[in-house]
């Protein structure tokens, strides 16, 4: 994996919110899932949530997505979050990784909604992209500036002028 990509991931893992190409992504809300289609040890329909960060997949208990099937290697693959989506990389696993039946090349494969990921010889997962929250456009932002600001409880927020006036009275 390229060093600059690892550096970007470390920075993204520490941030609370990541903004990429007009998409604002919270690191605390799942943005995609991997659903089990076929597995020796896992039940079909079982799902794993994916967040805006790198994720390891493999047979080792320390892998973030633990797949206990024998043909799956320890540290089998990595999912890297970049440019608002995920790219999968095979970690030179013994039986390989395929996306929609095609072996994953060294540069990885950008995942799309409903892609089928085969790990080893018997494990198949389906990638599902969840709805992304988009940032307001400049036009929407301008419209919001003219509206009255409120707090979550519905209380009116004092303007800076009102705050100064109150301080002068005290």
Main sheet overview: 6 strands, antiparallel
The CATH class:
Mainly Beta
Indicate the percent of residues in helices: 10-25%
Count of distinct structural domains: 1
Mean pLDDT: 76
State the total count of DSSP E strands: 14
Overall CATH architecture? Sandwich
CATH fold-level label: Tumour Suppressor Smad4
- Assign an overall shape: globular
The helix count comes to 3
Q: Roughly what fraction of the amino acids lie in strands?
A: 25-35%
- Give the low-confidence spans: 1-23, 134-158
Could you say which structural class the secondary elements and strand pairing correspond to? alpha+beta
Order of helices and strands: HEEEEEEEEEEEEEEHH
**What Rg, in angstroms, do the CA atoms define?**
22 Å
What is the straight-line distance between the termini? Answer: 61 Å
Give, in spatial order, the strands making up the sheet with the most strands.
Answer: 4-3-13-12-9-10
Protein name: FHA domain-containing protein
Organism: marine sediment metagenome
Description:
Strand 9 and strand 10 form a beta hairpin. The protein is globular. The longest helix is centred in the N-terminal third of the chain and has 12 residues. It has 170 residues and is an alpha+beta fold. 18% of the residues lie in helices and 34% in strands. The protein starts with a helix and ends with a helix. The protein has a single domain, classed as Tumour Suppressor Smad4.
